[in-house]
Amino acid sequence: MSYLQKSPWIIHYDASSCNGCDIEVLACLTPLYDVERFGILNTGNPKHADIFVITGGVNEINKEVVKNIYDQMPHPKVVVAVGICACSGGVFKECYNISGGVATVIPVDIYVPGCAARPESIIDGIVQALSILEQKRNSMKTGVEGTA
Amino acid sequence: MNPFLAAAVFIILAPVVGILITGLDRILTARMQGRVGPPVLQPWYDIRKLIQKKQVAVWGAQSFFIFCYLIFIIFTGALFFAGGDILLVIFAFTLAHVFLVLGAYVSFSPYAHIGAERELIQLMAVEPMIIIAAIGLYQVNDSFLIGEMADHPGMPILLLPGVFLGFIYILTFKLRKSPFDLATSHHAHQELVKGSTTEFSGRTLAMVELAHIYELVVMLGFIWLFFGANLILCALAIVVIMFLEILVDNCTSRVRWQDAMISAWFVTLVAGAGNIFALSIM
Ligand code: SF4
Q1: Which one of A119, B113, B114, B197 is most buried, counting C-beta atoms within 10 A?
Q2: Residue of A4, A37, A76 with shortest CB distance to B38
Q3: Which GO terms describe its molecular function (chain A) (predicted)?
């Protein structure tokens, strides 16, 4: 296991979710789930983060914010879309201002479905994201790195 | 010990000691919050990971300033453990922090700017006490050389209780612990994002982390001077002090910079300067 997998730092952004999934994301940090056991820290700063945990269907106004956060994260990085809203737009899909899922704005690596996504599945999603992070680092080292 | 050898031992061993202490600190913090916490070597994993990340710097100068910060912190510690002049150690220590502030000022990020300003405020708050500690140690040892202070047969702390108290007070600033973690904090999600370190990433951030670890060992070295040759008592004191620092870190919220600075100066004046005054008329 490389150091990248032992110390994944996340940034969490609420792209117009109903807050249900956000509370579940924050629940992962509480004593019951304690993701710091795996070295996972919630940094709140894109320049320090490795994993972008994003909830909600992304509306027309925060589209740019989502892109901006993604662009500010240094490579290698992965995106975890948490909740069915982030996966596809969910119940808000038909709303006039919802773009319908995070994947419409930035490339998503892991989808964690659920309304709201349970902390267990969020942690599972992040752990799966770690192996993708590792793959991206390897391709970065060998020079065939894509920007996604 | 040969001064060059001592400096070399510091450069090699300080990261090991510092990482272990920081790792235990994180575990203890987690336990105080009812969590399990990360592995002891987590700070080491973090630094290694940061080195593997791609470098993103909008302004190249910041990496240079942070490199100087790290170099001067290492120089400070090497000089300290080689038994050099304590005044020179303090100057080098301050200079290192000036580089950190410059590094934070390079970018146009408002978070980093406020962090840099607060870093300066912290420097202003702690500097008088550090100088007073040097004066106090001089009064007891009749020498500014750390090499001679370390050989003190008794315990300078018995003559310098006020100075020691004041020093412990400002230690909280230096360890970047709550309630005085104004500039940047170990805890995420706050009004300043990450304060002075907001704009650093990858290797640059790794250098900042490493410098913090060296700095921790230098600060513990200062505590050692108060105990002279009584190493066992010194180790015991360090354990107690670190425990109290972590406890305070976990049960207080950050204060405003005015309160931080005024209280630091108040403690410096009453406990530190009072102690020096009493000693000089004795
Ligand atoms: S998936 Fe459900 S809980 Fe999560 S943001 Fe959407 S509506 Fe809220």
Answers
A1: B197
A2: A37
A3: 4 iron, 4 sulfur cluster binding; metal ion binding
